[in-house]
Amino acid sequence: MIAHHVLFWLKADTTEEKKIAFRKSLDTLQFIEAVKMYHIGTPAPIERAVVDTTYTFSLFLLFDDMAGHDEYQVHPLHKAFLDEFRVCFDKVIIYDAH
Q1: Which residues span the domain enclosing 60?
Q2: In the Cβ-directed half-sphere of 98, how many Cα atoms lie within 13 Å?
Q3: Residue 12 belongs to a domain with what CATH number?
Q4: Are the C-beta atoms of 92 and 8 separated by less than 8 Å?
Q5: Does 49 reside within a domain?
Q6: Is the pTM of this model over 0.85?
Q7: Which of 30, 98, 17, 88 is nearest to 59 (CA)?
Q8: Strands in the chain per DSSP E
Q9: Is 19 part of any domain?
Q10: pLDDT truncated to tens, each residue of the chain (98 aa)?
Q11: Which of 32, 43, 46, 72 could pair with 53 as two cysteines, CB 3.0-4.6 Å apart?
């Protein structure tokens, strides 16, 4: 199992309309066959010193194996998402774990 967790910080001038479109585009990634589980979220209202709530969106995906992860990376839906929205990224951090 490969866990792929992406945290997105969108640029401060990203409009609400663009954030809605961003979220909808993230939703399309669930249709990539290699994706076995997905979750899209925003920071939970948890106030603890060790909890980072500064990001805009969180994307969490599970793959059966590294081959599934690699398939996802080159899939047309993933590429389309990046092509349209990478200009909105202020910062992105990815954690991959097995």
Answers
A1: 2-44+54-97
A2: 9
A3: 3.30.70.100
A4: yes
A5: no
A6: yes
A7: 30
A8: 2-10, 35-41, 57-63, 89-97
A9: yes
A10: 999 999 999 999 999 999 999 999 999 999 999 999 999 999 999 999 999 999 999 999 999 999 999 999 999 999 999 999 999 999 999 999 99
A11: 43
